[in-house]
Structures are given as structure tokens and as C-alpha cells.
Amino acid sequence: MYKSKYEAYSFLTEDPKDTLACDFEILSDEIASKIGFLASNVKNVELLNELKFITELVYHINPTLRTFLSVTPEEFEVLLECHNKLKHFTKGRCEMFVLPFGSRNATYAHIIRNNFKSLSRIAYAEERLGHSVPDLLHDILGILSNYFFYLSLYFNMSQDIEEIPFVSRNYFL
To answer: Which of 1, 42, 53, 115 is 20 to 30 A from 171, alpha carbon to alpha carbon?
Structure first.
């Protein structure tokens, strides 16, 4: 196999076949970039600082499958507080599913939410391959996915945009 001397990331070809660590790292880097893009549209300083904190956490979880989880219990608690604050603030905003519509920031938060679900899927797949994955990593990824869901509700709420409910024909018959 050809290995370019200009490769942007050394693990692109060196990762063993039985691990998804490189995929996890590339997607987490992409997510961090998307959060940075979203943050560029945020004027609220408190929320901007929160997104910066979350972006740093994403970079800390990036090498977890290859090395170890370096997120501290204190950082996890701060993340949980951020999540719970948004969940409380948007309480009653939607009952179940909503279409990923609304403001530009809300729809982009939905994209990031979904990316965290994909990252979570990679982490579970890594475990199915027989590798150890910290339980806390699974918790962090779930919290981050939900955080960005609540953030999308917050963005729509702050612009007086109503959520569009979605009722599934498959799950609620």
C-alpha cells in the first residue's frame, strides 16, 4: 500500500485492522471544528465560553481509544451542569421528536448532536471488537449528544421559532 509522505495524519494507514481508533479521532476532530464554527455565530459570552470548554473536552476525548480517557471527574461534573442547565431552560419545548429545522444555529446544533451519536456508535463498535472503552466515555458522548439537542431548542427559543414536532409512523402506531 502506498503511504504518502504528505499524509495529514500518521494513523491513516498505520492503524491495525481490528480498531476504529483512527475513525474515532478523525470524527471527534471534525466535531470540534463544527463546534468552533457554531461558536463563531454565538454572541452570548457565557455560551461562547461553554462551547470553548466543550471543544476542549472533545479534544481530550479524541485519543481515548488509543490511549486513555483524560477527562477529569470535575470536568465531567461541569459538562453535566451545562447539560442540565440547558435541559431545564428548554423544559416543555418539545414532547418527543422534532424536525431539525429552525434557526441556522439550531440546525447546526442538530448536525453536531447527530455526529456525537455517530461517535458513540464507533465507541460501542470498538468495544464489540474486544477493546476496553471507559464507561465514562459512553456517558460523556451521550451527554454531549443531548446537550446539542437542548442547545438547538435554546437557539430556536431565543429567536421565537417554534419546533416542528415529528410523529413517527414506525414507533408510535
So the answer is: 115
Cell 457554531 sits on residue: 38
Contacts of 54 (CB under 8 A, 6+ apart): 35, 79, 82, 144, 147
Confirm whether 169 is domain-assigned: no
Instruction: Count up the domains in the chain and report the number.
Output: 1
What are the residues whose beta carbons fall under 8 Å from the beta carbon of 7, sequence distance 6 or more?
13
Based on the number of CB atoms within 10 Å of its own CB, is 149 exposed (0-12), middle (13-18) or buried (19 or more)?
Answer: buried
Average pLDDT over residues 138-155: 98
State the CATH number of the domain containing residue 51.
1.20.1200.10
- Per DSSP, what are the bridge partners of residue 97? 166
pLDDT per position as a tens digit, 23-67: 999 999 999 999 999 999 999 999 999 999 999 999 999 999 999
Kindly state whether residue 24 falls inside one of the protein's structural domains.
Answer: yes
